[in-house]
From TrEMBL:
<feature type="binding site">
    <location>
        <position position="255"/>
    </location>
    <ligand>
        <name>Zn(2+)</name>
    </ligand>
</feature>
<dbReference type="InterPro" id="IPR009080">
    <property type="entry name" value="tRNAsynth_Ia_anticodon-bd"/>
</dbReference>
<dbReference type="InterPro" id="IPR024909">
    <property type="entry name" value="Cys-tRNA/MSH_ligase"/>
</dbReference>
<keyword id="KW-0547">Nucleotide-binding</keyword>
<dbReference type="GO" id="GO:0005524">
    <property type="term" value="F:ATP binding"/>
</dbReference>
<protein>
    <recommendedName>
        <fullName>Cysteine--tRNA ligase</fullName>
        <ecNumber>6.1.1.16</ecNumber>
    </recommendedName>
</protein>
<dbReference type="InterPro" id="IPR015273">
    <property type="entry name" value="Cys-tRNA-synt_Ia_DALR"/>
</dbReference>
<keyword id="KW-0862">Zinc</keyword>
<comment type="subunit">
    <text>Monomer.</text>
</comment>
<feature type="domain" description="Cysteinyl-tRNA synthetase class Ia DALR">
    <location>
        <begin position="374"/>
        <end position="440"/>
    </location>
</feature>
<feature type="short sequence motif" description="'KMSKS' region">
    <location>
        <begin position="287"/>
        <end position="291"/>
    </location>
</feature>
<keyword id="KW-0963">Cytoplasm</keyword>
<keyword id="KW-0067">ATP-binding</keyword>
<keyword id="KW-0030">Aminoacyl-tRNA synthetase</keyword>
<dbReference type="GO" id="GO:0006423">
    <property type="term" value="P:cysteinyl-tRNA aminoacylation"/>
</dbReference>
<feature type="binding site">
    <location>
        <position position="259"/>
    </location>
    <ligand>
        <name>Zn(2+)</name>
    </ligand>
</feature>
<dbReference type="GO" id="GO:0008270">
    <property type="term" value="F:zinc ion binding"/>
</dbReference>
Length: 492
């Protein structure tokens, strides 16, 4: 029997503002779309936190035996600077400033994004579509929205008429904003814009002559509006009606509000059952911003190469630190906080490593089944990782008492206990046992030092063919020997 049948889950739905029972559209299956990065700069730590929240959500669904299709896009066109309609495309601007092809910018930062996520032990999504790969689908959606009378053409561009849409639908259903207030609080269009109302958003923008990212369309050579790509890619791979749509809190308005409007205008139905939003990350109590220097890159945590840090921290420690906060709470990053997280992570790993040395007895003095259910209860309550971690520390306490012989456990309970701990620590939270990786490093060091010894012997025997062969074959494996006055060292 799949685990999800015995572990019902509640999700906080941004649409209703309440925790709701999770009922997938197709039993045993989850369709989840998460807005991915705009690849015009290095991924920042706040993005890593957002994607980590959804990585753990993805992992937990998999753990519950759901079949998950997780779609996370790459925005490589259409995202205008300052998230507005007038102005320059973020990718195109970067390409102009750095004198690169837009696709060089996209490639550079897509690779950076993948490298960073991999180093923090993220699972790859099931599909990672790009906006530029779905221009045809976006054009088709625009045609449908024009046919309903809600999309209108103006000077080669196409806009979405939010006022007209709001006559029959609710523009503001997700963000709680009210169109009358929005209209009252914006200044009049200054005559420069082609829009009917200031709140209207672009579905298609005509490209200016100097604009290098452009595609042919029935309206002009141009490019799609930013909100449209997510409507096109989510419905293409998950259907017009799917389970979960996620993203950072900052995307709720206008991006996700506009997605809902586009879908409803196009298909007549609301696209998503559960909208999920991950909260932001601050640094030393303040908003992160490159301009003020209150900024840290994810890679700098791993290298320690930032004044904010007292030293380097591992990927697992960083994950552990981030998952100690619930995804809907603001998380503040500071050196003190991650130092404390490192201590907790080490304590947890020491206990996990001690599991195999615990010996079973005739009876159990600990209620393992209840403890395990408390772990599930935490995750079933809107993916509450801090409560899960608190339960894992309860397990650490049990392990220490068992080691000291102050509690007892049967072989069957011990097996259940070990399986559950390993599942929650490694599969669900995505932590890794870095001591195990260290011990592999120790083995590598031992083997290379053995070869260095054999090479020294070959040289002493004047068997230079053999000593050169050892050196060259190590180089072929990416291991460089360096002869110094204190002997031979190596680097990988
Ligand atoms: Zn999106």
């Amino acid at each position: 029997m799949p685990l999800y049948t015995t572990q019902p889950l509640k999700i906080y739905n941004s649409l209703s503002g309440e925790k709701e029972n999770f009922n997938p559209i197709h039993e045993g299956n989850v369709g989840m779309y998460v807005c991915g990065p705009t690849v015009y700069s290095n991924v920042h730590l706040g993005n890593v936190r957002t994607f980590m929240s959804f990585d753990v959500i993805f992992r937990y669904f998999l753990h519950l035996d759901y079949k998950v299709r997780y779609v996370r896009n790459i925005t490589d066109v259409g995202h205008i600077v300052d998230d507005v309609d007038e102005g320059e495309d973020k990718i195109a601007k970067k390409a102009r400033l750095e004198q690169l092809e837009p696709m060089e910018v996209v490639q550079r930062y897509t690779v950076d994004f993948h490298d960073i996520l991999k180093s923090f032990n993220f699972l790859p999504p099931s599909i990672e579509p790009t906006a530029t790969g779905h221009i045809i689908e976006q054009i088709e959606i625009i045609k449908k929205i024009i046919d309903t009378g809600i999309g209108y053409k103006a000077n080669g561009s196409v806009y979405f008429d939010v006022v007209k849409y709001n006559e029959t639908n609710n523009y503001g259903v997700l963000s709680g904003r009210n169109i009358e207030d929005m209209l009252a609080n914006t200044r009049d269009l200054d005559g420069q814009s082609d829009k009917r109302n200031p709140q209207d958003f672009a579905l298609w923008k005509k490209a200016e002559p100097e604009h290098i990212m452009r595609w042919p369309s029935p309206w002009s050579d141009g490019f799609p509006g930013w909100h449209l790509e997510c409507t096109a890619m989510s419905t293409k791979y998950l259907g017009n009606h799917f389970d979960i749509h996620g993203g950072g809190m900052d995307l709720k308005f206008p991006h996700h509000e506009c997605e809902i409007a586009q879908n409803e205008a196009c298909t007549g139905q609301s696209p998503v059952n559960y909208w999920m939003h991950a909260n932001m990350l601050t640094l030393n109590g303040k908003k992160m911003a490159k301009s003020t220097g209150n900024n840290i890159l994810p890679g700098e945590i791993l290298s320690g190469d930032n004044n904010i840090l007292s030293k380097a921290f591992s990927a697992s420690v960083t994950r552990f630190f981030m998952l100690q906060a619930h995804y809907r709470s603001i998380l503040d990053f500071s050196d003190d906080a991650i130092v404390a997280a490192e201590k907790g992570y080490k304590r947890l790993m020491e206990a996990v490593d001690a599991l195999p040395v615990i010996s079973a007895g005739a009876t159990s003095s600990i209620d393992i089944a209840s403890w395990k259910q408390l772990c599930y209860d935490a995750m079933n309550d809107d993916f509450n990782t801090p409560i899960l971690i608190a339960q894992l520390f309860e397990a650490v306490r049990y392990i220490n008492l068992l080691k000291e012989g102050k509690e007892t456990i049967t072989a069957e309970d011990l097996a259940t206990f070990a399986t559950a701990i390993n599942a929650f620590v490694f599969d669900v939270l995505g932590l890794s046992d870095e001591k195990a990786a260290d011990s592999n490093n120790d083995k590598l060091e031992g083997v290379v030092n053995m070869l260095i010894g054999m090479r020294n012997q070959a040289r002493a025997d004047k068997n230079f063919a053999l000593s050169d062969q050892i050196r060259d074959q190590l180089i072929a494996l990416g291991i460089q020997l360096k002869d110094g006055k204190d002997g031979t060292t190596f680097s990988v």
